[in-house]
Fold these 2 entries.
Entry 1:
Amino acid sequence: MKDEEVVFDRRYHVLYSKECKKAILEKIALHYPAEKVDEVFEAVQVQYSDYLKDYRTDLGGKDNFHNGVAGTYDCIALFSYYAVCRDKTSFAEIEEMNNSLFLPPFKKLGFVDCNKELYKRLMHMSFKIAAKKCSKWNDYTMKVSPYHKGEPIKYEFTSCPVAEFAKDHDLLDILPALCNGDYVAMEMIKAKLVRRTTCGNGSVCDYAIYGDRDERLKDHVEYVDADGYRRN
């Protein structure tokens, strides 16, 4: 099935990104014979269409920055791949796929060092800008705390459309594979994320971002819980 033949209301929704399609096709090719790849991918496309059939229509379509590469709709595509290929794929593979989509912008920020005050302030400013965009689209409810010199950057989400989607479609078992990328992203800017819960396993997704050399990190030991979430 060609991408333009995938059935969904394009007034409100967007197609998965080219990068996401490539990632899914590569994994399908690992797990199935070459003659089955197109058939399996079409099943993923049909599942994607089905998921969007009664999905909320207020996420801003292509104008919303959260709907680009690694955004809400790519997450739905990964959920679609997981639903179709559950017996072939794995938690680790979904986590790898998500990171391949989510992390490239952070790789470009390799010069950022969140142990330095200037970069912490710049990152805090970027999160405040993101919060304003979230308010515009009413998708992620995001609150950024005031920044104080020498303290970690703090913000939180109290609603997340990806977590809501996972709850609505019985996909919470794979949601941590998408959430855990936040930890890796912070490591790429010489920072460490401290998080207790997400919108998937609690009522809030809380972020405290320290420089990775901050001695206070010893009081926030990271671990992986029984559901696969990285947390502190």
Entry 2:
Amino acid sequence: MEKLENIVFYSMDRAIRSYRQYAQQQLKKNGFAMTIDQWLVIKCLIENPDVTQVELSERVFKDNASVTRIIGLLVKAKFVKRRVSKSDRRRFELTVTEHGLQTIAAVDQLVIKNRAYALEGIDQQEIETARKVMMAITANCSR
């Protein structure tokens, strides 16, 4: 029987979880009152201002209920505004507030440092190879 440490998907999951834990600790240590998932949702909203909540869920790899909860927390923290859509009263329009934009700009600097720390000692060619492998796995599993 194959050991867990020899399974590539186990190693990938372990690396991702380790990075997320490190990044979350850095957010807290640097005084940012948000989670990695909240940062991800705000970044997605900034990059895709007209995204629906279903599309948002797909883009951040979360179920709709989790995204609804995250949005509620972001609204409460005044990072995001939520209002009923004028064109479809069943939908909400989500807008990142000025406070949210300023916070994300500051967090982005920390994210860059976190990535550099996590990728220390790994050359650009290895990073590109890993990215291509991840894209191929995603494509294989999406067919």
